[in-house]
Amino acid sequence: MTDDVQHMKWWGWGVDGVGFHWQDKPGFAPFVEQAVGLDLHTAPPVDPPSFDDITVAASLASPAFVSSLASIVGADHVTTDKLDRVVHTYGKSLRDLVRVRANLIERAPDLVVYPGDEDEVQRVVDAAVAADVVIIPFGGGSNIAGSLEPRADETRVVLSLDMGRMRELIDIDEESGLARIQAGALGPDLEQQLGARGWTLGHFPDSFTHSSLGGWIATRSSGMQSDKYGDIADIVRGLHVVRPSSAGVSGLLVIRPIPSSSTGPSVREMIVGSEGRLGIITEATVVVHRIPAKRDVYGYFFPNWEAGIAAMEEIAESDATPSITRISDARETGFSLATSKERHGFDKFAAGTVLPTLMKSKGWKLDDICLSFIGYEGGEAHATRQKKLVDRIVKKHGGMGVGKGPGVLYDQKKFDTPYLRDFLLDRGAAGDVSESAMPWSKVNQLHDNVVAAAEKAFDEIGIKGWIMSHMSHSYHSGACLYFTFAFVFGKDPLGEYDVVKRAIQQAFIDNGGSLSHHHGVGLEHAPWLEQDISSQGVAVMRGLFEAVDPGANFNPRKIVADLKEPAEVN
Amino acid sequence: MTDDVQHMKWWGWGVDGVGFHWQDKPGFAPFVEQAVGLDLHTAPPVDPPSFDDITVAASLASPAFVSSLASIVGADHVTTDKLDRVVHTYGKSLRDLVRVRANLIERAPDLVVYPGDEDEVQRVVDAAVAADVVIIPFGGGSNIAGSLEPRADETRVVLSLDMGRMRELIDIDEESGLARIQAGALGPDLEQQLGARGWTLGHFPDSFTHSSLGGWIATRSSGMQSDKYGDIADIVRGLHVVRPSSAGVSGLLVIRPIPSSSTGPSVREMIVGSEGRLGIITEATVVVHRIPAKRDVYGYFFPNWEAGIAAMEEIAESDATPSITRISDARETGFSLATSKERHGFDKFAAGTVLPTLMKSKGWKLDDICLSFIGYEGGEAHATRQKKLVDRIVKKHGGMGVGKGPGVLYDQKKFDTPYLRDFLLDRGAAGDVSESAMPWSKVNQLHDNVVAAAEKAFDEIGIKGWIMSHMSHSYHSGACLYFTFAFVFGKDPLGEYDVVKRAIQQAFIDNGGSLSHHHGVGLEHAPWLEQDISSQGVAVMRGLFEAVDPGANFNPRKIVADLKEPAEVN
Hints:
Two copies of one chain form a homodimer. By secondary structure, chain A is α+β, with helices and mostly antiparallel strands. Chain A contains 21 helices and 18 strands. The first copy, chain A, has helices spanning 28-36, 63-73, 82-87, 94-101, 118-130, 187-195, 213-219, 226-229, 232-235, 267-271, 305-317, 330-338, 345-351, 354-362, 380-396, 405-413, 417-425, 443-460, 493-510, 529-548, 566-569, and strands spanning 78-79, 111-113, 134-138, 158-162, 169-173, 178-182, 199-200, 236-242, 252-255, 280-287, 289-290, 294-302, 324-328, 370-378, 400-401, 429-439, 465-475, 478-488.
């Protein structure tokens, strides 16, 4: 494994030594017992899996091919090492983690290559295509849609192209607020380099610490502050994408950083979301902002979900422009209160006597209340004014502000959620997420019907399950609902997971939502693509992929299946 | 010609009886004489061309084919009538008007069909594709990029599909702020129907009165208030596109109105800008807004262009969110002052003694000052606050406000500009426009170099020409510059036009701008596409078109040439 690039642990999220702990959260164990019937006191965690137990088929890469790549990137940056191949087999979806922990590695990539610059990427791509090798680009490895794994029946050599060495901020055009950044930069790499010069990208997905700019672009990512900064499609203006070169024609696709353009179907918007199928994204020129003078996240409580959503809808339509609008449903609010630590002021407020007394005086029910976070960014006066505008709307819908305490907590914990999934897996339980965007008029209906569909699925497999949700992003015409679900595995973990996951995805589609708002399609969501964008929409996308990659060398059969094997994905 | 659809006059912009008049604008004739050497007093306009002089080749459509279409849309809604064919031959570009006035109609469509609903569109499309007919969709006919004309050497039957009967507002989802509207609705149709229910689309391109929703989408249009409402790509969420149906598979491509989505390369963003090449847009679901309580456009003067652009750039980066930011360069400011009518208060101010006195006191030069319009929309308090924020920035850059007078004038005159082109053509002179978007860091450089390139081109053809510009749209990371140029024709109108137009387009590309910001590609801009989005970008787009329309039935050879004939366009 190359020394230059740090990966997450092969069997779970994040880095060794960081994890979720419950002993300092007095409400957590009772909550989990009540929600999914798991007694944390009597369910000791399993030990981390041993890498020695993992078996991987021999690499199909010939020594000659490996050596030809070594001559491009250097011998240290091409490898058929077992650990490297396992790390690059999957992303970090629940399905991925269950499989890797159970030594279910049907098809690992045959080799991993770490290019150091765009020219090396071009030469690797050309060598791979010439040898009819499959290329799968790899950023931070945080994908949860199955976008990274080789198909089980792939008989050609599979090359995982790890972009981790290409993580530099190349340049900032300070006059235009545009930064050129290499695609392999992880969130912290990138914000650190920008921050040192007074700038921010403002893109903070849950995966921020372990996901890359190129990965965000390839999967159409959205960050927590996208109400202000936009989704990645809004943020990315310029792009470099390496495609096969041919006699006299450079393989480099260049989209220049134009703010807006009227040059036919948007090739930029074809690259965004392409999950490697159109080529290898090597750099992007992105819209950046000066770090705002003021940045605050405030907490609010609403008497119930409907009131909270009505407020969010009115905020989206109003003149107010908060940077974050987020509200948890009653179940997720209960979860948040349960995961609070004792010592924090806010938690005393919430878990102690203050909140119950307050609610009684308002006639609120503890089982109905919803916790909301709303962020304000910009100049001092702007942030203050936005809060004033929002506070008025919150009040109109019966909500109340509870200050910055919860917002500070939210800010501190916002990137920790993925660790909870490993905590549950260690104890034989599933925890996963799925999200959808929909018009405002469908938000309540979709929310209730997804919860009902999940509960029906839990009943079907005969387990006690849990599902909760928050509205994570809002737009003028709609919002994104983000669902988290959990259950204790029975005898067939992946079979049970499929029943629940499928019920949720189908309910998204049936209730006017997209199959995915910011996690991409990969293999996991591909079965619903036709229901989302219609057969003709899929035909257009398929036509694009087949025309542009006739040899099916670029992450084939992701998003849509090849014509030859439609049954496999659809 | 069907009675249900009104067209612009066949030889020019707009409707009979409306035109540009100079006698009530005392500064205009001297201005024109000085700018392009045309003496309006001694250059009497030519009479409108006579339709009898126009010759069109016989229609290639067989009676059987015409009759098969009549059985779909009704006999009144399919025609091979000469006037109908001529109206549908071209858009309204300068090249189009020169040609049609000179009876240069190389290839008219063979028939025109007016479908009444989506089902009829599907049946027409299927019949046309089965008969290997070329289909060119037609909205308001205002296109200026050559997107509407059949290629001269097209040997197949060409069908112009006029969407003018499909212009209904189908539905408003008031909770989500989304309206379903048929693609053939012209600007006024659409705003009238929305306005009656208290809503607005907020999309006001110069062509507003004679362009359609479907045309805006097909060419990636932008309106004057897009700073607030977004470009058409931002506005359009849902789409219906009719493509050929096949056994068991509907031809209707449906993109549902999702606010944001992560479902692979954006098919929505492939349709936007596709100029008919991917199918026929029949309806769209668009983001609409409640008509704001307040809507004002204020005028400002800046001492010079650089100061004005610096202010616009700072506004774009600030917390302020005006609905319009627009500034004319010194030349266009001179033109605006010259086209003012005597009687208006503002014009007295500008053309009388007030402005000169004021400028003297500030040390400004009349030849340098730049007129700017900035719009504020929303609630009363919001609009007031935005103006306050903007006024502070204007002042910092040495500008000064001159009240609402010029804004009212601007609002009244904003859709009249195209009539000026006919006025000039009637007098043997060219007037045309071309626009580009670029990062802020390139705005001044591009502006100056485009002016220089145009002047060099004027010299080259040995004429006295004129070019002026305004910044028409701004974004966080850049802006759009909109250039207007004019000259008196010599012996070879289109040859001379080509020299100037090419010089301007090439200067866009050479100075970091897009080849087009909101007019599309068509035939007119196709030669620069490769320089704009790179060979690989064009290869991706070409791959898409060829895969999705293998028979080349949908407006072929627009945007990019077919593989078979790359030389023709590129």
